[in-house]
Amino acid sequence: MGSAPRIALDAMGGDVGPAVMVAGAARAHQRRGDLQFLLFGDEGAIRAELDRHPTLAGASRIVHCDDVIAPEEKPTQAIRRAKTSSMGRAVHAVKAGEADAAISGGNTGALMAMSKLALRTMKGIDRPALAALLPTLGDNDLVMLDLGANTECDTQNLVQFAVMGAAYSRVVLDLEKPRVRLLNIGTEELKGTDELKTAAAILRDADYLGMRFDGFTEGDKISRGDVDVIVTDGFSGNIALKTAEGTARFVTDLLKRAFTSSARSKIGFLISRPATELLKHHLDPNNHNGAVFLGLNAPVVKSHGNANEKGVANAIRVAARMVREDLTRKITEDLANIAAHGDAQAAAK
Amino acid sequence: MGSAPRIALDAMGGDVGPAVMVAGAARAHQRRGDLQFLLFGDEGAIRAELDRHPTLAGASRIVHCDDVIAPEEKPTQAIRRAKTSSMGRAVHAVKAGEADAAISGGNTGALMAMSKLALRTMKGIDRPALAALLPTLGDNDLVMLDLGANTECDTQNLVQFAVMGAAYSRVVLDLEKPRVRLLNIGTEELKGTDELKTAAAILRDADYLGMRFDGFTEGDKISRGDVDVIVTDGFSGNIALKTAEGTARFVTDLLKRAFTSSARSKIGFLISRPATELLKHHLDPNNHNGAVFLGLNAPVVKSHGNANEKGVANAIRVAARMVREDLTRKITEDLANIAAHGDAQAAAK
């Protein structure tokens, strides 16, 4: 793949639409001038935004589409408009080889369904997974997957998620040998479902993969910073991710209440504002924006629906990085390694 | 059941042992002087603590046991010492009718195994569940179950958890008609596993029970305060509970870092101390201590291993309340209502 990523951007997705999506693209383009954009959506609206970003305009082409997938549409219905909607056409541009990665801030289920249908699941992967970066107390974010693409998962799904998550963390977090753990309800070997126990046994034995498998972890240890990739089924992953988001909001809401509870604490708040701004910055989802679908034949990134310009730029950077580092090829190699290892083991018996 | 609850307390359980457990009992007894205690464990150690709490000593009897279950022991091993250990004998005192409820701060798995064996599961309940109170932004805490007793749950388990959780919240939160929801990865009817969808259909139809079933909820809405009982399988419940604990600690750790990052923010912190103390108070697990096993023929409460004196007193208060309000009978009545409703429906067909 070339070194100048071509991004297919659904300019209509997200709560705000073209204004934020185009501004985000401009911000990403400002940092990496080699990015190329295909912008899908209402030509007039996109043109108006592009006029405010002339440098980006020079690196972009608008593809007009009337049709937009609504946030509440069912994937089974949305998919019928894969060839007309801004989301569907952005994905299709990747299939057709006109772009290297697709990004949308729209309906997650619809984006997943369209991406699977158009780009197909990689050889060696049974089911694609949704992965995202989460903040930690450590030196870097962590990768967590699956976050809701697969409600129920078997052993092979979990092992494949570990391989994909490790490859992704090597690319986006710049780690040589990420520390991988399976999310469970205890850290002892006997805990959890049979699927988890068998997946742990397979991964424990997989030293030849570019990861260090450290066994199980629990919900209260997610953000401690001693693990780089957390692997789980989509049901538990979605519950954990949303519970973490909700609790962070809960604590900051309590804090706000506390700080406004008296004149004294209001003054304290004003003085310590740089401190609370630091906290806000660390917890701002826009700094960790861009959930990725792993396991497809090309990168697709889901930007958060209410991401701001910075959040969209981050999602674009994640996509560009996956293209530059050729993540899809890296996952393929790891899967081949597992298969070869299995063959070698069988031959040795 | 009488109005003066007799509490069987495993004085050796928890990270500290007799010092905290006895002090907690004294604190609970100070508030409700009618409580009676059986204290199980090392007689010398308990006696030394009781000497500091003469009023409690007058309402207590020590039952000496040499044997203590260790935190890391497997339930299958611990259970062999049900008749010798302080934990096992506390549970057994309830079975023998010498006490009305048992409390331990020790090994959760062992306590569950011993309680199930000695006290048996209630008629109409397939599997007991572990329930706890969680803080919210609303007027009251919420009840969440199952928190880890059952890794996999079927539809009937979930429906029974809803009945038990609703009865428990009526008793401990003093609610007339608690708002009940099932934890899921989306709020649309189509989301989630078949077990969840079927359980929702049964509960939606169960207006005659003392609850209001409001459908599904998601991880990010747990602490908003618009639901009183959240029902889930033990795997997801454990992940959600621990993720919430971990995230709350993560945010407060970040806050501490931020507040100590400069002289200015340190001063701000000192001034706004009453505000941050308020936050600390709200998040202190000791204010919500006492996970209960629901579905057994008598109340058993698990106090958190590192609970302080206040936490233990709270666990005792929860147990006493379950005894006074005769929770076991209330759950039995609700289950009979479901059965009668089922029969009436069948007859009407």
From TrEMBL, chains A, B:
Q: Catalytic activity, per the record?
A: a fatty acyl-[ACP] + phosphate = an acyl phosphate + holo-[ACP]
Q: Where in the cell is it found?
A: Cytoplasm
Record bears the keyword Metal-binding = no
Task: Please name the Pfam families in this protein's record.
Answer: FA_synthesis
Its Gene Ontology cellular component terms are:
cytoplasm
Q: Which UniProt keywords apply?
A: Acyltransferase, Cytoplasm, Lipid biosynthesis, Lipid metabolism, Phospholipid biosynthesis, Phospholipid metabolism, Transferase
According to its UniProt record, the EC number is 2.3.1.274
Gene3D superfamilies found in the cross-reference section: Isopropylmalate Dehydrogenase
Pathway(s) it belongs to: Lipid metabolism; phospholipid metabolism
Catalytic EC class: transferase
Q: What Gene Ontology terms describe what this protein does at the molecular function level?
A: phosphate:acyl-[acyl carrier protein] acyltransferase activity
Q: Which GO terms describe its biological process?
A: fatty acid biosynthetic process; phospholipid biosynthetic process
Q: What does the protein in this record do?
A: Catalyzes the reversible formation of acyl-phosphate (acyl-PO(4)) from acyl-[acyl-carrier-protein] (acyl-ACP). This enzyme utilizes acyl-ACP as fatty acyl donor, but not acyl-CoA.
User: Which family does this protein fall into?
Assistant: Belongs to the PlsX family.
Q: Which NCBIfam families match?
A: plsX
**What name does UniProt use for this protein?**
Phosphate acyltransferase
What organism does the record attribute this protein to? Answer: Allosphingosinicella humi
State which gene encodes it: plsX
